[in-house]
Design goal:
275 residues; alpha/beta; TIM Barrel; globular; 39% helix; eight-stranded parallel beta barrel
């Protein structure tokens, strides 16, 4: 037996993220596959297996069509590819808005089948009781206020929130209620800058902004947007790469080599051995 012991890396958990309130900003990105999770793991505190996978990977027009099975499949992949970052899996539309018992059954299935550390739900007046029910039964929950992608059909599109007084009050109340229900952190998406700061000051748990404010306790972006894999990105995204162009050039070079019979070459093929 080898005398060397394999180094154990402790994965971050809900208490670690909650303790970052007001401290060093929390770095978050979305992940859907094992190879990408492996790359992100050394840089991120939290990776979200977002239901944005429906649009980013599966080509859906919005997140409404994402299923529980899809989230579990991608959650499993991200867990295989990561070691250190906390992994949170989105609960898809229709999986947590009903009875608390149904929400728990679906949340526990996600956690059992993926090994993820928590689930995320889009908060709202009717969801608060379910958040509390889940947390009391051992399911760490991340909330989400402001622009709620799963409500896109009600809102008529992806529209920024909190510009009007009545909206500001409602979103602030939802954030407070989400924190009081036991959520360990709250995503604040697509809201007016002042409201994001107000929410961050009003709740005792970390806020993670996306299209919100630098005053949040952390930030998250859809990785594929940030890397420039699409020809269009939302206003709140800063492109840190231009992989769409790089991939296009690489594929074009490959196609040219194939058509000119330059690939494969001697370095990429096998030869029979003499004798």
């Amino acid at each position: 037996m080898s005398s060397h012991r394999q180094e154990t890396v402790r994965r971050l958990a809900a208490p670690d993220i909650a303790a970052r309130k007001g401290g060093v900003p929390i770095v978050c990105l979305t992940a859907y596959t094992a190879p990408m999770a492996e790359i992100l793991d050394q840089h991120c505190d939290l990776m979200l297996v977002g239901d944005s996978v429906g649009m980013v990977v599966h080509g859906l027009p919005n997140t409404v069509g994402v299923t529980l099975e899809m989230m579990i499949l991608h959650g499993q992949a991200v867990m295989r590819g990561s070691r250190r970052a906390m992994v949170v899996v989105d609960m898809p539309f229709g999986s947590y808005e009903g009875s608390p018992q149904d929400a728990f059954a679906n949340a526990s299935r996600i956690m059992k089948e993926t090994g993820a550390s928590a689930v995320k739900v889009e908060s709202g007046e009717t969801i608060v009781a379910n958040i509390e029910y889940l947390v009391k039964r051992g399911v760490p929950v991340m909330g989400h206020v402001g622009l709620r992608p799963q409500a896109v059909l009600v809102d008529g599109g992806f529209k920024a929130k909190g510009k009007l007084d009545h909206e500001r009050r409602r979103i602030l109340d939802e954030a407070r209620a989400t924190a009081e229900a036991g959520a360990f952190a709250i995503v604040v998406e697509g809201v007016a800058e002042g409201l994001a700061r107000e929410i961050t000051e009003a709740v005792a748990v970390p806020t993670v902004g996306i299209g919100a404010s630098v005053g949040c306790d952390g930030q998250i972006l859809v990785t594929d947007d940030m890397l420039g894999l699409f020809d269009w990105t939302p206003k709140f995204v800063r492109r840190y790469g231009d992989l769409r162009t790089q991939i296009g050039k690489s594929v074009a070079a490959y196609a040219d080599d194939v058509r000119q019979r330059k690939f494969p070459g001697p370095a990429e093929i096998y030869f029979a051995k003499a004798g």
